[in-house]
Design brief:
The chain is of the alpha/beta class. It has 14 helices and 15 strands.
């Protein structure tokens, strides 16, 4: 890494060089939502612009020999990108952050911290792209990987006995929303000297902060909730301490993984509305999940906000909300899924998540297609499974769209007539007589 990048990241990667209107002397503990909105505001030294300008320049002028500027080359450091990394480090409670060109480049930066003989312990149901990269790197002899079910104490204990160098956690998991005990994993990592990494993409710092539970690194695909508008591809890594931060900053610069200034500018715009969007996302999700929980066409719903979900209590303890991602299985399997998808009008069939628009995808053939059928089976990803990212449209419109699509998927189930079963309602263990019961559960 060149000298400028070292100084830039060390001094300002997670600090307050540009605080804008936020007067921390008067208010030393502003709410996270306030920090998100105020990041870099009214700090333009040239013209006093309220919103920070976008610095697209690839290079910067040296005042003289042996007098390097704060930034010299945008791959190593850029004022627009720094505003974003400052904001992310503050929101996650870290010492510093780097912004990368994609979520997968953020994953790659972190995996540069392990060596050929090091073991990475990863979730058996991790994101398909992460699974693909880990398997590919192991095939090349770059690392060793073992996939375990982090919600199964015996499976996790067996993995920890092998003393991994890195423990990779996704919670909630993708796509079945399993919940991993962050504090327990962090304690285990400390005991064996492992680096604890949490992919916090599904919740964002608006709803969960893994560093508070003892994690060393937090990874994001900022494409998702951080940006929130489905018009930027980006990633981020936030480090709890200075030493690891220096390492990830070095690898980001050395591999050319840094995010462009323009994409950083857009992602920071998304950060400003993160907390407001999150509230609407969650409100809409409660309404949509409530409908699915009562539908006779639905076999299972996977959402930690449901009391029957096996990770519900744990999610309640370590999250400040349940998020707006869920998955469900239809009684008719893939044929029913195809019928449902053909009827939907407001839920777009597409990969990704966390944008203002509502999306639906088929994990087996889309987000997790990189996993072979055996790996999908172990992870519990069936052919009839659908994953939903609920947007911020009108909740009434979303419910109406799903209701009309579900009406095409009604199936007759022997022994489940209109008078001999119940329905589990969202947020309540009570059942309503006279309706068929939908199984509301996660896979433990």
């Amino acid at each position: 890494m060149n000298g400028n990048c070292t100084r830039h990241h060390t001094d300002h990667g997670g600090g307050d060089r540009t605080t804008g209107l936020l007067d921390e002397a008067a208010n030393p503990h502003p709410a996270p939502a306030t920090r998100a909105v105020q990041a870099g505001l009214a700090a333009d030294p040239a013209y006093g612009a309220v919103m920070p300008p976008l610095y697209l320049s690839s290079n910067f002028r040296f005042p003289g020999l042996d007098d390097p500027p704060a930034y010299d080359y945008t791959r190593s450091g850029n004022p627009t990108r720094e505003l974003l990394t400052n904001a992310l480090a503050q929101l996650e409670g870290g010492a510093g952050a780097v912004a990368t060109s994609s979520g997968m480049s953020a994953v790659g930066v972190v995996l540069n911290l392990v060596r050929a003989d090091d073991l990475v312990l990863a979730p058996h149901d991790c994101y398909g792209g992460t699974h693909r990269l880990l398997v590919g790197l192991e095939r090349q002899g770059r690392l060793r990987v073992r996939f375990v079910d982090f919600t199964d104490p015996e499976s996790l204990a067996a993995g920890l006995e092998q003393e991994p160098r890195m423990i990779w956690v996704e919670t909630p998991s993708n796509p079945l929303l399993r919940i991993t005990d962050l504090a327990a994993v962090a304690r285990a990592a400390r005991r064996i000297g492992a680096i604890a990494v949490a992919d916090n993409t599904f919740l964002s710092p608006a709803l969960q902060r893994p560093i508070d539970f003892g994690f060393d690194l937090v990874v994001h695909s900022t494409t998702k909730f951080i940006n929130g508008h489905s018009d930027v591809v980006g990633g981020a890594v936030i480090a709890a301490g200075d030493e690891l931060f220096e390492e990830i900053a070095w690898w980001t610069n050395a591999t050319g993984a840094a995010q462009s200034p323009f994409d950083s500018y857009l992602a920071l715009r998304g950060v400003r509305t993160l907390f407001a969007r999150t509230r609407i996302h969650e409100e809409n999700t409660r309404a949509v999940v409530g409908l699915l929980a009562e539908s006779p066409a639905v076999a299972q719903v996977y959402y930690p906000g449901l009391p029957a979900h096996p990770g519900h209590e744990l999610a309640h303890r370590q999250q400040s909300g349940y998020g707006s991602l869920f998955s469900f299985e239809l009684e008719g399997g893939r044929p029913a899924a195809e019928k449902l998808l053909s009827r939907l009008r407001l839920f777009t069939l597409a990969e990704s998540l966390g944008g203002v628009e509502s999306l639906i995808c088929h994990p087996a053939s889309m987000t997790h297609a990189a996993m072979d059928e055996a790996a999908q089976a172990v992870a519990g990803i069936g052919k009839g499974l659908l994953r939903v990212s609920v947007g911020i449209e009108s909740a009434d419109d979303l419910v109406a769209d799903l209701r009309q699509a579900l009406s095409a998927c009604q199936v007759a189930v022997p022994g489940c007539g209109a008078d001999d079963a119940d329905v589990v309602r969202l947020g309540s263990a009570a059942a309503e007589p006279g309706r068929r019961r939908a199984t509301i559960a996660g896979i433990g």
